[in-house]
Amino acid sequence: MNKRSFIKNAAFTGIGATVGMDALAALFESKLGVSGEVLASDEQFWKTIRKQYLLKPDYINLENGYYNFVPQPLLEKFIAHVKEVNYQGSFYMRNYAVENKKRVTSKLAALMGCSAEEIAITRNTTESLDIVIAGKHWEKGDETIMAEQDYGSIIEMLKHVGSRYGVINKMVSVPNHPKSDEEIVALYENAITPKTKLILVSHIINITGQILPIRKICDMAHAKGVEVCVDGAHAVAHFKFNITDLNCDYYGASLHKWLSTPLGAGLLYVKKEKMPGIEPLIVGWEKEPYKILRISHTGTHPSHTDLTIEDSIDYYNMIGAERKESRLRFIQEYWTSKVRTVPRIIINTPVESHRACGIANVGIEGIKPGELAKRLLDEHRVYTVAIDGPNVFGCRITPNVYTTTDELDQFVKALKTLAS
Ligand SMILES: Cc1ncc(COP(=O)(O)O)c(C=O)c1O
Prior knowledge:
The protein is α/β, with parallel strands linked by helices. The protein has helices spanning 3-12, 16-19, 21-30, 36-39, 43-50, 72-88, 90-95, 97-112, 125-135, 152-165, 181-189, 214-223, 243-246, 293-296, 303-319, 321-339, 369-380, 405-419; strands at 60-61, 119-122, 143-147, 168-172, 196-202, 227-231, 250-254, 266-270, 345-347, 360-364, 382-383, 385-388, 393-397. The longest helix is centred in the last third of the chain and has 19 residues, at 321-339.
């Protein structure tokens, strides 16, 4: 669906008037052909998109990383799907649910640049990565490598298989300001032994926003016969990439983060030749070893969420992947560049543009992360989340496409006040 048809469709459901869809249509018309880089600093353009969000007036929300709540046109579509599935009941589930999910999966595959046979809709990153980690055939003495900056519960799953099967987990620590891609690749490479079976690596480290050189890590690992499982929780619909280009073996992500689907949607990618090597966590009817459905069966689940994934992809495409990435990077660099050299302020996110996008992390010397988050909220009405280690001490800052530079100016002022 292109911009026009999404807007027409949304207007048809009667939501155009309440969320400014006509204004949005006119805006897109006027910006045809303007590059993402140029549009990134066009506040008027992004303020029109901001109007599609129902924002709480209580605080400036710089914690969109947990859940990128849904803009109003998508919320209306979600509610319509809930009503329709509820109206049709079993008839919908028996006659349409499977076919519709297949169509949405194909659309997701097109978005992610992989084959529809290699991708499945799941409930979230946790489920996707745990399917892989728990489903692999582990033997006593096998080794894995992960970073202490990876997501906590995924590390826990590796520890769990560690204690269950006698797998040895090795932990590396990713520097907040790496000198080069090679430094990061070497970090993982140096931890590999002949026993290493799997590397878990974050596409973007959630607590700092650092983007890792996944392709280089995968190429290095494959040359040594090691598989790579990528945690892409924050990467999908945040910055543009193609799963096939990453050359990873497994990829998991949450769609309720940057794709802004309603809560409870994720994706799992498994390279076709790797599928037979995974045992299903939940067993369904599919037995063919090269069918991803064999390992991604869930039983009955909210089908209306599957349907909204399609709308969320349309919405994302309407804004434009390049435009969104450029805007998110612009706003991150907008505020970080104003405080990077301020005494006592520490930015825990690399300065190079290709090593970060919308997410960054800031600390203040002498103020504990929890206290910083509390004071930002209580004294300056800025909502963030505190990160207290490992090797990262500060608040994670995740703006969204609706965040304005005025809001970021207020945030910068708050940081300078707290640091002074
Ligand atoms: C890097 C990373 N991995 C995994 C997860 C888990 O995501 P979910 O709870 O959607 O499964 C998160 C959540 O914030 C995350 O940041």
